[in-house]
Amino acid sequence: MSGMTFLRSSLALGLCALAIARAGGARAAEPATQPATTQAARPATITLHVRDVPARKVVAELSRQAGAVLPLTPPDLFDQNPLPPVTLDVDGKPFWTALEEVSRKTGLEPMASPDDAYPRLVLGLNGGGFWQEPHVVGGPLVIFANEVERNHSVELRRSTPGEFERRITVNLTAFAEPGLRVLSASPGVKVTTAVDEAGHRLNPSPGDPETPDFSPASNPGNGLYAWNLAVVLEAPPAGAKSIAKLGGVTYVRVQTASERVEVDDVMKQRNLTRTVAGVPFTLKSLKKVDIEYLLQLSLRRDRKREVEWQNLHGSIYNGRMALYDNKGRLVAGRATENGGDYGDRKIDATLRFVREPGVSDPDAGEPYKLVWLAPTQSKDLPVPFELRDLPIPE
User: For residue range 135-159, what is the model confidence (pLDDT) as tens digits?
Assistant: First the structure.
């Protein structure tokens, strides 16, 4: 890169940061060593005005404003692939809208590994595959329509002979922005509008949820980066070709206040008991097993209200803890649920920590400090969305 190009790139990023600071619309810079303990309680707003800036710097700035590390696969992707400079104008957009613009300019997009038991947003060069399905951004989520199924059945019981059921099912996938501290996601969609191309109303199935469900039994999965949703509708009249409009609302619960828990010399602690967020918390042990660190802990509900217990359950089950060495360097920024008893009155859990390339500090030593921002308050965010022109199979 020439000296003039570097100067122009640095100036562009500097002016971008200055404009963001004056607008007051972005989050404060997040330390790169603390992605697990500084996540936000509100969706990100992204502003990027850059001219001929290296892709590496654009991703770093997007990460800073999102409040989350955006690891690459492979970790040395920028060294292996000298991507062209980026020119981009994004002003006060949701994270997913900004990321799609970055993807179109750089080729970098989210990639999912089927072998990852605890998925997170990882950026790689995937040939545009991530954004190909119909999708819509709703606040902190991007929702994709994966497929539309048509099902016809007839009841053969003598009590209801010849009773026909004709339905279509729209299968969706929701992705949450990585910087938002999501505790739980409701697995249902409240349909607000559904019509075919002729304007005929498509009624939702009788099981259409009236209220969000954040019960632990309905939690859609470990990690809460992506989960599946489904909308079941009455089949349209014969000859209908598409769902012209499908509108709905789904919900996520985010953490809005917390109690910071720190345990020093954590590898040597045994059966350490404290009161955390108003409930008894016991750290039984943290042990190294091969390249992993296994944490055993327990919580007791006592007199906690149902929503407060759900929040603690979500935080533990989704591994919202981090390990640091004795110099404050990040060893592991999250944990994977690795078995246990998750009951209505108690939790006895085993969590697995691993070092992650591009997230963990490569110079970090053995774990010394455990940090957990235990949830004390939360907010349920409605996420309205609308998809259009989804083809219906014959």
Answer: 999 989 999 999 999 887 777 766 6
